[in-house]
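Notes from the 1:1 (GR / supervisor)

We went over the backlog. Supervisor wanted to see one worked example end to end before approving the batch request, so GR pasted a single chain during the call. The sequence is below; no edits were made to it. Supervisor asked that the structure be written out right there so they could see what the output format looks like.
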Amino acid sequence: MRRLVIILLILGGILVAGDFAARAYAESRVKEVLMASLDLERQPDVALGGISFLFSLAAGTVPSATVSATDVTIERVPVERMELLLQEVAFSPRELLRKSGAIHATTGDGSAVLSGEDVTAALRNNDIPVSVRFEAGRAFVSAEPLIGDVAANVSVEDGQIVLRPDVPLLGSLISVRLPPILPGVRYTSVTLENDRAALSFDLTDTTFEF
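Structure output shown during the call:
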């Protein structure tokens, strides 16, 4: 009986070590895929869900994947912080090992945090000479030397962040298109939190190749 217990403990240790190695490898591959897909300068943080990852790897599916990245620029729009939660993530184990294939997520959601400087840079990249500042949960726009700070309402409409000044300033609204972080993204809302704008989005049938 004692020998059987020792053998079982050894086998359990091997399985735990194998599970850890498989998870680490898969997370590393997903980091590389997202880095290339989003054109990031450095790898994001990735954590794959599931209790026994060896079985998930063999089946080619994991229940979830969380992704976070900081100080990134996506399609000329600076993003201070981005977080993703992907659900029902599927892939081919063979393709993952061969480093050539695709990863698919059925659904997902996330957030992207922008500073006023980020929005200003995105506007300037689109030749819109307007500055944006977030302070105490409020938004202000300016176009010096034409006019100083003017309070503005902020919303998300048709994939754009829209600012409507309380008084006319270079037209009735100022907008810049938000980057499609991944295929299937849909921006749903924006919330001003102190000196930052937090954008919420969801994802449907997202696929990215590697």
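Supervisor's comment: The chain has four helices and eleven strands.
Batch request approved.
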